[in-house]
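Reader question, answered in our methods column.
A reader sent in the components of a multi-part assembly and asked whether the whole thing could be modeled at once rather than chain by chain. We filled in our standard form and ran it. Here is what they sent:
COMPLEX SIZE: two components
ENTRIES:
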Amino acid sequence: EAQVTQNPRYLITVTGKKLTVTCSQNMNHEYMSWYRQDPGLGLRQIYYSMNVEVTDKGDVPEGYKVSRKEKRNFPLILESPSPNQTSLYFCASSLGPYTEAFFGQGTRLTVV
Amino acid sequence: KQEVTQIPAALSVPEGENLVLNCSFTDSAIYNLQWFRQDPGKGLTSLLLIQSSQREQTSGRLNASLDKSSGRSTLYIAASQPGDSATYLCAPNTGFQKLVFGTGTRLLVSP
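And here is the structure of the entire assembly that came back:
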């Protein structure tokens, strides 16, 4: 089944403890992105990647890192999480820049 | 900066009604627009993708229209069912898969 898989689905952590949220797609898509969703703000793009080793900032990149070492994987790294990064995170992928985007199930992160 | 507004924010209807959900965006320089549904505790499910050169796109009981020059898209749901209850999101693509989302329309269809 074609899908975007995120792990973990739920995560509670403490301020400053480094964490990684993984994202993997099995559709051989070139483009991958991370979004966060907050009440009243909608989804906002954090980072995106156009191909292996090619990444760029979205609208809200502060406090996040990404890497794209393999085509199928696009992990989101929070090196020193803070409470304002408590949010619902989504990974997305698409074949090209103007094709249909597919989203993962989401990761609900709480930073205390 | 692209801004997306969805009206109404919430909608409650009896089963069987035909519905129109509205989406407006401020910058007409878009490549396409995608409609999604979001169910609680689940991810976003793509419903329709309408390219900037298209006026309409249909999938089953769903029909999306796009008027790029006026910055508007509508999602028409025919013969609504309780299973249609969800939050509906529109997202114009402003380039390189940068989707700009509205805050959605929360739909409740009662039996």
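What stands out: Strands of chain B lie at 4-7, 10-14, 19-25, 32-38, 44-51, 56-59, 62-67, 72-77, 86-93, 105-110. Chain B has no helices and ten strands.
Send us your own complexes using the same form.
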